[in-house]
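Long-time lurker. I teach an intro course on protein structure, and each term I like to show students one example going from raw sequence to a predicted 3D structure in token notation. This year I'd like something fresh instead of my usual example. Would anyone be willing to generate the tokens for the chain below so I can use it in lecture? Attribution to the forum is fine with me.
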Amino acid sequence: MIREIHRIVVGVDLSEAGGLSTGSQLAVDQARWVANLSGAHVTLLHSVRPEEHWSASGGVFADRPLPAGDGFRRPLEAALRSLREAGIEAELIFSDERAWLAIVANVLQFGADLVIVGKRADPAHDGRLLGGVSQKLLRKCPCAVWVVKPDLTAGPANILAATDLSPVGDRVVALAASISSECGAELHIVHALSLPLVEQMKDSESEQRFLAESRAAAVAEIESQLPEPLRGAAKLHVGLTSPSNAILACVDRLRPDLVVMGTISRAGIAGLSVGNTAERMLGHLDCSMLTVKPADFVCPVRPGEG
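-- Reply from a regular --
Happy to contribute to a lecture. Here you go:
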């Protein structure tokens, strides 16, 4: 599935020192890895619009000033050159739109399959681990979004995929399995069981029998979705709890490099939310995060708005 990606958009930003930010450099490196596997075209997109950002040196939120002269282009052009020298078809685009809106507009215009951006290196003063651009993309971008953690220096060695056994959950498992196969990562899959009220009203023995049967059915369904080499090799975590608690418990115990999960829009309102479970995860996972949209996701941005 990772080899079926044909077009990647990478949001690239500059550090206060003027070079590529740590997260942006890693996003470029991740795009290079995917493009080398799939032959995908890579678009590096940089917004020159002054936007509020967290200044580590000043300890305050401030507008990033517009770059003076053309010197700011050098690290961006160097990143572009590094991709082309690796035999990857790539381009560099500048936009005066807000970064997240420029990225979404590009995805809509050219039909990108994947967006990659860097996660902020340090939490903001309010403890958030995701910046505003990442949050907007996770909620509104119509394609998969990979937010990479700045201090990750290699491909993921430990992947956690969360599935609710819905169609988008099936896509999550397929994508996580594909990445695991390509980089030799350990794959963990988590699924939360629920106990219907009618079962809760029965005796304890009936309840335990229902849970055992539900767990066996879920394990069989997940195993059937995995490629042959991963059947029996992937670690499955299926239990009775809420989806968010199941994911966080696995994250605390397994310390994955990458969490893959699905997103939804709530109540048919385009782009309003990424869904209850994913919403709870935003800003709380101290690792890279890859989110997958359902096939019927409705993007709130219309073509041409960017």
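Some talking points for your students: The chain has a mean pLDDT of 83. Residues 2-59+69-292 form a domain with the Rossmann fold fold (CATH 3.40.50.12370).
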